[in-house]
Amino acid sequence: xxxxxxxxxxxxxxxxxxxxxxxxxxxxxxxxxxxxxxxxxxxxxxxxxxxxxxxxxxxxxxxxxxxxxxxxxxxxxxxxxxxxxxxxxxxxxxxxxxxxxxxxxxxxxxxxxxxxxxxxxxxxxxxxxxxxxxxxxxxxxxxxxxxxxxxxxxxxxxxxxxxxxxxxxxxxxxxxxxxxxxxxxxxxxxxxxxxxxxxxxxxxxxxxxxxx
Length: 212
Ligand code: 3DU
Description:
The chain is an alpha/beta fold and 212 residues long. Helices cover 44% and strands 20% of the residues. It has helices at residues 15-21, 32-38, 40-49, 65-72, 89-102, 123-133, 145-154, 174-178, 187-190, 195-211, and strands at 5-9, 27-31, 54-61, 80-84, 106-112, 137-140, 159-162, 182-185. Helix 1 (15-21) links the parallel strand 1 and strand 2 (27-31). It is globular. The relative contact order is 0.15.
């Protein structure tokens, strides 16, 4: 079974550990705290050294097109970028999407966040935006398995990636069993005493759940 975990790197993980982890994850998600800690140049160099299928930058962009383009143009070492969908299309996501298409990069839109205070009242609007933009993927909290299943039915060709697993409460494999393509996991891996073995155990739990 292909790896179903995207490692959320919000804190520095040494290259020696990343090299052991690279064959166990599908993707690496670079968070804003990591870039603020290390600086862009060090992050770029770190990413160059690892062999991971998809590098996703997660700044949850939410701005006018010009500003979002000014951010992503500095990070074209990544394969894809996450933006909010509530910001709407014209003058914002339409410009970001065209720019990323032109550069051969992917866009993920946040559909529903994992924390309890996220308000789903705008869901129908968010769906409209997703339909119009047709992103590579969407982000839905792993704590919202019903939503994952309904989005999977409605947007079958769009990849679903799900954070909120482990520390935030969802069990390993919950989102995948509900229809997500990948689970985003951070602290449960990088704060573990032995992150490599922790990741291997998580992969085994997910694999067992998918098989059964
Ligand atoms: O809780 P963790 O340490 O496993 O990290 C989760 C990651 O996913 C983290 O980078 C955070 O920015 C991101 N994320 C959410 O936690 C919740 C969302 O709804 C969207 C992204």
